[in-house]
Design a protein that fits this description.
This protein has 404 residues and is α/β, with parallel strands linked by helices. The chain contains 12 helices and 24 strands. Helix 5 packs across helix 9, helix 6 runs antiparallel to helix 7 and helix 10 runs parallel beside helix 11.
């Protein structure tokens, strides 16, 4: 793919990772991913971010189609995670930049990752700006979105924000702009990215969104470092409002039922719980952890206000896949959830109690009594399962109504 001019004298020069299915070792990326980088050609030429080391050759060939490498004056590093900086040592050696800009916290990252002896590194902070000639660059720190060193750049003359990780999606495709693909595909990818990466830092998102609004910056393009670029007022508004909604985590009238099972007793219970939600008009999604990765579970939870978890008792605990999934979800700190526990057992039966404690440790309110059964659920047990779904569903609808 050739470089793409996204604004006059501003070019996308990133790299596509079509085959990536394991993003950073913890989240699936079923559509691949993109490592975006951008160049502004002016009296001073600036490169914003770069790519991981494995895609260095592709990136450098694309970059050289825009500018000779020795004509690049400034390197701007919004975030030093290796998918955005892996090729940096090679690039510095070839470019010999006059200055390398990063945040104060970025200094620790850049020195920690690389041998930076002789590099012309300069710290910038919120409110600082540099001039490229016709273009200026204003910096705003966005700590923990999603590393301590993260920041964004605003180019007022182009009404452009280069946002690094925030507003990103894991999409590798020949399209470069969000309005070039179906909206449902973009929304799914944005939720998948936010809920598996940014969600724990939602309070920081709300602070940064307010700070961004308070600047009064006129923005008609957001260029993230993963996925597609949002261009035009409608797309920018969609990105900003989506992040506001994601970060607020208001309760939603949907339920997610996750389970693992040995001999399908717990699985049968899960489906009867789903029927209880159905009876009160709450759409329930049933996901077996044998068939669904924990990041897919988290993405589905984006549309749900209730989380039900089921497992048979295994070694006085729950099955490992459910334990691991709840541990992953706990680290992402979802808020405002209702839930409940269920499961079967053969002799000792501690699994459901363990699940209830794990949900409680995530601050998930459990408005109905958990359901457990020995061996195979009978009709009375299945009726209790259905009633569990109904009770949690009714409580969820009430909570949604109160939240507005």
């Amino acid at each position: 793919m050739l470089p793409i001019e996204i604004k006059p004298d501003i070019f996308w020069v990133g790299a596509l990772d079509y085959d990536n299915r394991d993003f950073h070792g913890y989240s699936r990326s079923p559509q691949g991913t993109t490592y975006n980088a951008y160049v502004i050609k002016d009296q001073k030429t600036a490169l914003f971010d770069c790519v991981k080391a494995e895609l260095g050759d592709i990136f450098l060939r694309r970059l050289e189609k825009v500018t000779p490498l020795d004509k690049i004056d400034y390197l701007i590093c919004h975030h030093l995670e290796l998918d955005h900086s892996g090729v940096l040592p090679r690039l510095v050696d070839m470019v010999k930049p006059k200055k390398i800009f990063c945040s104060k916290t970025g200094l620790k990252s850049i020195h920690g990752h690389f041998n930076t002896a002789g590099w012309p590194i300069e710290e910038v902070k919120t409110g600082d700006s540099i001039s490229l000639g016709r273009h200026s660059v204003k910096f705003m720190e966005t700590p923990m979105l999603h590393w301590p060193d993260s920041m964004i750049s605003y180019i007022p003359e182009a009404r452009l924000i280069i946002s690094n990780d925030i507003f990103g999606q894991n999409i590798a495709s020949p399209e470069r702009f969000s309005d070039q693909i179906p909206r449902y595909r973009l929304e799914q990818a944005a939720k998948e990215y936010y809920y598996n990466i940014i969600l724990p830092y939602s309070p920081n998102v709300l602070k940064s969104l307010k700070q961004l609004a308070d600047t009064g910056w006129d923005i008609d393009m957001i260029a993230p470092d993963h996925g597609l670029i949002m261009r035009g007022a409608a797309e920018v508004s969609w990105a900003l409002s989506s992040y506001q909604i994601f970060a607020e985590q208001k309760p939603k009238p949907g339920a997610l039922i996750i389970f693992d099972t040995m001999w399908r007793s717990t699985e049968e219970m899960a489906h009867y719980i789903a029927e209880g939600f159905d009876r009160v008009g709450v759409m329930a999604h049933v996901m077996s952890l044998k068939a669904n990765h924990h990041s897919a579970v988290m993405t589905r939870l984006a549309d749900c206000g209730a989380l039900m978890a089921g497992s048979p008792t295994h070694n006085n605990d729950v099955l490992p896949m459910l334990h691991n999934t709840l541990s992953y979800l706990k680290g992402l700190r979802p808020k405002n959830l209702l839930g409940g526990a269920f499961g079967s057992y053969g002799w000792s039966g501690e699994g459901v109690k363990v699940l209830g404690e794990m949900l409680g440790a995530m601050s998930i309110e459990q408005p109905a009594e958990a359901v457990r059964c020995q061996y195979v659920p009978d009709q009375e047990t299945l009726a209790r399962c259905e009633d569990l779904g109904r009770q949690v569903g009714e409580a969820l609808l009430k909570k949604c109504e109160e939240a507005g």
